Amino acid sequence: MGSSRVTIEDVRPILTQPGGSRLVVVKVLTSEPGLYGVGCATFTQRVFAVEAAIERHLKPFLVGRDVDRIEEIWQMSMVHGYWRNGPVLNNAVSGVDQALWDIKGKRAGMPVYQLFGGKSREAAAVYVHANGRSKEEVADSAEQLHEKGFRHIRVQMGGYGGAAPEMHTPEGALPGNYFDPRSYGRAMLGMIEHVRERMGDEVELLHDVHERLHPIDAVQFAKDVEQYRLFFLEDLLAPEDNEWFETIRDQCATPLAMGELFNNPHEWRRLVSDRLVDFIRMHVSQIGGLTPARKAATFSDVFGVRTAWHGPGDTSPVGHAANLHLDVWAPNFGIQEWYQPSELDYEMFPGLPEVRDGYLYPNELPGLGIDIDEALAAEHPCEEIVEQWTQTRRPDGSAARP
Ligand code: MG
Fold it and tell me: Are 257 and 282 in contact (CB under 8 A)?
C-alpha cells in the first residue's frame, strides 16, 4: 500500500429508485483488484443528465488518473468543461469526489472522518419531519417522533406551501401544484403555535418555508414566528432573494438556515461572512462533494455559522453516509436532516448509518463505510417520469419557485 500508484480504471453511474426518489450513485473502480469507492451524485429531477455527464464526459477524462490526488482531480474536474457551477456537473463531480474519499479511507484503513481530523463528537443529532393536514395532525405526528427519541422535529402542514382549501384561480387556469403564499403564512403561524403549546418548550421545533413567501411577507413571518423559539427557520427565501436577509436580520432573532439550492460559494459567502444566517445547509452533492463541503464548513466556522447539511430522501444513502463524516468531524456542526430510511434502503446500501435515540452514529469501517448492492439496485430502475410537485403555481396560475 502507500507507495504503489493506484489509478482510476472505470467510473460507473448507478441509477436506482428504491423508494420515491430517483438516485444516482457513482462507483469508481481502481487498478487495485477489489478496491473501489462509492459517491452520491443524486440530482433526482435530472438523473439521466447526470448519468450522461459521468459516462460521456467525466469517465474519459478521469480514467488512468491517480486516485490519491483528490484535490487536484476536483479542481480540474470543475474547470475542465470550461462552463461551470451548474447542478448537473456538480453532482457528477461529487459522485467521483466522494468515491475518491471512500477509496482513500479504505487505503488508509480509516473512516473518512479520521482523514478530516477526527471526531469532534460521537454522533450527530438529527431532525426529522412531522407532517399533517391539520395542526392537530402535525402535533400528533411530532409527538410520535418525540416518543421515538427525536428531540429536533421539523413541522410542516399540507406539504410545502400548505394546502389552501379555497384557491381563487382564474378561469382556464393550467394544471399544477397550486399554493397561496398569503394563506400559507397565516396557517403556519397557527400550526407552530399549536404544536409549541402542546409539546412545551423542551422539544426543538424547525420549519421549512421552502422559499414559498414573497420577500416582504418572509420578513413579517420571521418576526411573527420569533416568539415560538424555533431551532431554525429553513430556506425562508429563494437564493435569488439573498439580499433580503439583511432586512430580516435587522428585525428579529429567529435563527435562519439557508442553502439547499446553492451551487457555488459566491452564492453563500456573504451570507456567512456578514453573519446573516446561522446555519449553512447546502446539498453536499449539489456543491460538488466532500472536498468543497469541508471548505464551506471551515469558512463558516470562522464566522460562528453552523452546518446543517441537506438530508432528505433525495440524497442517496451514500450521500447520507458522507454527510455524517462531515457531521462528526466539523467543530461547528449544528444539526443533520434525516429521512428515516426504509428496510429496502438498508438492504440495498449495506452500512447505511442508524439512528438511536435521536443521534445518528457512524460505523467504524474504513472509507465512507457504505456500499451498494448493484444487483438489488438493478431490480429497482428509475422511472421515466415528468416531475409533478415542482410544477408549482400561485393562485393566479403563474409559475412559482418550488
Ligand atoms: Mg428544505
Answer: no
